[in-house]
Amino acid sequence: MPSFKYNILCTRPLDSMLIYKAANKGISIDEVSFVETEAIITTDIIEKIKNIATKKATVVFTSMNAVDAVTAQLTQIPDWKIFCVGGVTKETVFNFFGEKSVEGTAKNAKMLAEKIILTGESKEVFFFCGDQRLDELPETLNANDIKVNEVIVYTTRLIPNFIVKNYDGIIFFSPSAVHSFFSDNTIATSVVLFSIGTTTTATIKTYCTNKIITSEWPGKENMIDLVLDYYKT
Question: Which CDD domains match (predicted)?
Answer without folding.
Answer: HemD
